[in-house]
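Message: Just now I want nothing more than another pair of eyes on a protein record. I am handing you a single protein, as its sequence and its fold in token form. As I understand it, each token names a local backbone shape. Take your time, and here it is.
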Amino acid sequence: MKTRIITSIVGLALLATVMVFYETIFFNLVFALVCVIAIHELYVAFGFGKKHLHIFVAFAVMAVIVMLADNDIVLPLLTPVGYIFIIYLAVCIVLGFDSLDFAKLGGMAFFSVIVVFCFYSLIYLKMLLPKAEFGYDATYFVFLILAYAWGGDTFAYFTGRAFGKHKLAPVVSPKKTVEGAIGGVLGSMLLGVLITVAYIQIAGRFFGSEKVRFSYYIIIAVFGIVASALGVVGDLFASAVKRQCGIKDYGTIFPGHGGILDRFDSVLFIAPLVSIVVTVFFYNFRA
């Protein structure tokens, strides 16, 4: 427990430091690195070895290109590089017919797309809500995403330990309970509202409007219920893959927590939803 707490504190401090540079390419590069590490964890989890290192390199390059896609120079490269990436994997399957398992490669590709889509959602917010026009709204939504995910995780953990009796998904994740999941929902709602209150007090505006309505808090709280449920889905999905791969953790980069995927599994499906909903509906953008 002590190790987990210390790691969490250090991790939050690093996150706060990174968020200071949210409007710069440094933020993109940090999360490009996070993506590459996560993809390497999948590469190892699915049993690929050194002889398939070229597969990892291809996935890593594609991930970096996507994470830098808000740059005017990189953006035109996204479609051709993506096409080359697909053709390259197809050729690898043909040439490596006896040594490259399509099922494993497909599993890695599927999970990698989810990972990249998740982290790209944070870049997407920065692209559509530039600071010059929307202040720090994009930064707020990034923190909201993490509050929904990690707040839900934390409340679920302690609620489950204190009151957990009914198993939620015993085969996939034996320690998770229905009571813990309920606590996670309440935690996501509470932290979402608290962060919103704090941001409104600091910025004096919300959803691009200086008139702050009570209904905003209701929206954030209800949104927290949906986000918390998606956090559970992401957690269980990552656990299911982990169990099928026969591993305990995806990595060891976070002492007491595991790897990138062990720490960000609950963020996987929350980040895209929040990014899409707030930009398309709350700000009347058209995708």
Notes: The chain is about 70% helix and 5% strand.
